[in-house]
Design goal:
This protein is an alpha+beta fold. The chain contains seven helices and eight strands. It has an eight-stranded antiparallel sheet. Helix 1 packs across helix 7 and helix 6 packs across helix 7.
Length: 250
């Protein structure tokens, strides 16, 4: 299978985003100590093929999201691999199908009718759950073929119920392929790794909504509070976030 040279494992990034959002909840209620951090799960499901993909699957045998670059309230930007049914078909033929608004070929293997592409797709309304809630993170692998959709996401147990609720329309045809714990950090230990100044900054940033989506304050607002330059404040936040991420993944 073709691999785009810039592809990376997004799972660690997704776990980091989850951690920041749960840490935000924890810090907001930081006066209550000895609160246990929720365990974060990676859940892989298989559902029957959705009829919305009928048109694209007339041309494509199978397509896989290899990398998710960005999600927002309207679009998903991805690197995907498409295996076409015919050598006469091309990724540009998919424009307009299933919300696909932009596609660029990054590499190709014409002997296998396979193309690695960068794509911009507009989400249908009923799938927007995956980016409206910052604690439900869509991740790879996501594979769609004639028979089924393999879907992966990272979240905590409570939020997982929201996703399962959305999939009820498939009844008992939804199969859970795997559920694995991807991290279970001790928040108190993480906070002890920060200096008093760093804790002061991150507590204030969280309270003011810096980690909300969308953000309620920016780095300039935070810098004014601490009477430092915007660049100095940004450097503080980068160091704080690096401590948090490194405490999980190293």
């Amino acid at each position: 299978m073709l691999k785009h040279p810039l592809c990376y494992n997004r799972n660690n990034l997704a776990e980091g985003v989850i951690l920041i959002n749960i840490l935000r909840k924890y810090l907001i209620g930081s006066k209550i100590r000895n609160i246990g951090m929720k365990k974060i799960k990676k859940i892989v499901l298989k559902t029957p093929r959705d009829q919305r993909y009928d048109e694209i699957l007339k041309k494509v045998e199978r397509f896989e999201l290899m990398q998710i670059h960005r999600l927002d309230e309207e679009f998903i930007l991805t690197t995907e691999i498409f295996k076409f049914r015919s050598s006469t078909d091309h990724p540009r033929d998919l424009l307009g199908l299933n919300g696909l608004e932009f596609i660029e070929v990054l590499s190709e293997d014409k002997s296998k009718n396979e193309y690695v592409c960068f794509a911009k797709t507009r989400w249908p309304e009923d799938l927007k759950i995956f980016f409206k809630d910052p604690e439900i993170i869509l991740c790879v692998p996501i594979i769609i073929d004639e028979q089924s959709i393999l879907l992966s996401f990272i979240t905590d147990s409570d939020k997982a119920e929201i996703v399962f609720e959305q999939l009820k329309r498939y009844g008992d045809q939804v199969k859970v392929i795997s559920i694995s714990t991807v991290l279970s950090p001790n928040t108190d230990n993480i906070l002890q790794l920060l200096t008093e100044r760093q804790r002061e900054i991150i507590f204030y940033a969280v309270e003011q909504g810096y980690y909300e989506i969308p953000r309620k304050v920016n780095t300039n607002d935070l810098a004014k509070k601490f009477d430092i330059s915007q660049s100095a404040l940004s450097e503080h936040l980068r160091k704080i976030e690096r401590v948090i991420i490194n405490s999980i993944f190293k």
